[in-house]
Amino acid sequence: MNPLKGMNRLKDVNETNEFNLSRRQLLKSMGVVGGGLVVGISLTGCGSDSPLPIDTAANGYLPNAFLQITSDNSFVFYCPRDEMGQGITTGLATLFAEELDVAPQRFEVKFPGVHPAYNNPAFGAQGTGGSASIRAHYEPLRQAAANLRSVLIQAAAADLGVAPDAINLDDAHVVVNGQRHPFGQFIETAKTLPMPTEDNPAPLKAASDFKYIGKEFPRLDGVAKSTGTAVFGIDVELPNMHYAAIKHSPVIGSTVASVNKTKAENMPGVTDIVTISSGVAIVAEKFWQAKKAAEQLEIKWNTSELANLSTEQLKQDFKQMLDSDEGVASDESGDVAAEFASKELAINSEYWAPMLSHSPLEPMSAVARVENGKAEVWSGTQGVQPIRGLVARALDMTFDQVSIHNTYCGGGFGRRSYVSHCIEAAEIAAATSKPIHLLWSREDDTRSGVFRPASLMRIKATMDEQGTVTGWQAKRAGGNIMPQRLSTGLPGVLPTAVPKGLINTAVNVADSVFENWIPDPTSVEGLSSDYDFPNKETLHATINHGLPLHFWRSVGHSFTAFAKESAIDELAHKAGMDVVDFRLKNSQQQPRINNVIKIAGDQMKQMQTKPGHHLGFAAHSSFESHVAQVAEVSVEDGRIHVHKVVCVVDCGRVINPDIVRAQMEGSIMYGLTATIHGNLQLKNGGIKESNFHDYPILRMNEAPNVEVIIVDSEEAPTGVGEPGLPPIAPAVANAVFAATGQRLRSLPLTI
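Given the sequence above, the corresponding structure tokens read:
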């Protein structure tokens, strides 16, 4: 495989006059602004006047898409985002509860189907990710509740014959002269009143009046999950439901050439064997019957061009790209070339991050029923909207013929925004005329899923005698996520009338843009951030091997922070400065990251470590939040032990401190898995690892004590699901250097 293949594609086609666009014309035509790609298309495929995909009670009042109140004073909150353990049902319900003066615990939370009202304001489509839920909904949900609050007060004033200013609200009740009246008493009158308009909205509460925002209370889904009554995708059951298992190709990207069903079709419980788009499916009365029968299928594959690809080849190709002049620049300031010409490089270091599996503990699963010209799919996902479109395309249906029912997710980390298993389940259900529960095994997900891209990064830097970084160049070689995301996502969100050929054209143009004109933001984000580099540039050299790459928790920050914060640590030692003081000196123009560095540094000074224990420091901003971490580490018999992590986070105004702490703790544990264990290896175009015995996750005896310090802030809320992860790998690596003098520049960390 030629790693430079395609890098000069735009140059070649320009010379033949097949694609004669200047860089400026191309970026303007595609709406590229500030490094972001804006595609001028409708992403919903349906009008805003379409009916809401929710059940309403006969005596219910539905003032907006998010809340239903009944006459018996019950409250149903239709959560617009997906709950995968991050606490979003509690967080978003709290926003509504605050403005409405209803205790969050009163809400019954349900997940709606597909509708434009539930689009994520952060990216204009219905999905959950990017730590965007609270920051995107903080004001819109509060405003929706405040508008309802205003209408309820007017209705109560009319029904009770009092002035609106004589009314107080308290926990779902109207209070007048000491008498409490439930909200449900006034919904019939409220139905007749107009809502405040966008031009004249109801006022929001002042922060000083908050009752629930910023307060700590148990999660709304805690009881259901503790008692086993919460319904996850794997729990869904339908009458006459059969189970399916799929045999996927051992070589990524291969397709079925032929299949010998003889051994499998006579096994107990087997009812159907069907070839689908991604492999061969066995349908049986029980899952274990389907799984064992799938092992007996004899399949010949049309082997893909990846058959000879290995991790070693990846590294060689990436290294070749790093050493070449290929690459597109972003995040530029000053004159790096002149700075490098005037000073000797202080560092010139390379950092490796491997491919990773998401490995959520609930495997991929979907239940599908196709009958009477309709299709229904049940699954816990991060995006119900793409499922509807993709299933509609796969079954040659319209959007209106497909219904999606979302459930709780047993972990997501980006994996559940890739929904191929839902398409598979629908294909099998259509082919067999049976309700199908498709369940992927752990081996399926590890070997046949999607992966965090591998990355090789090089950082060069100069500094002056006072320890100020004067020049910074960061270059990353690797694959891009966004073109693949467009390839798999656009067919799901564009109307089915849009032909696949047109979508492919759009994807190919985007692919060319990210290879030749601007870096995919998810490939370089965070690589040159957080510090006051007067002369800097970020370069990206794209190499597309055709591997299925996808968002992984904290996306590009999961690997760029390792390179950036390891390099900063190297520079600090090169300058002979304390690692915290060095960071503070070089972040004077970044007040929020500077502040968390200072707080974490003060904590570091107070930490009393045992003999043989050493401390490492790292800080990183992502998803508009700022995190600094101190890792206490020891190295014994060649093994790295992480004993304690102090985490300081500034995520703006906090909705529920307990959830913030839980997300920091979870991010650290997930990040530690990648730091000391995570390593998917390619051999002959397939993944060598298969399950937790050879792709281990962090065990309880490896889990450190974690102390989370939340910065008090009045800024708007920012992300918490992902920002806790990026600093942990460099913090541990920097602690290992403090312990051993050995600088580890490759993940997972090994001595």
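The longest helix spans residues 133-160. Try to locate this feature in the token string yourself.
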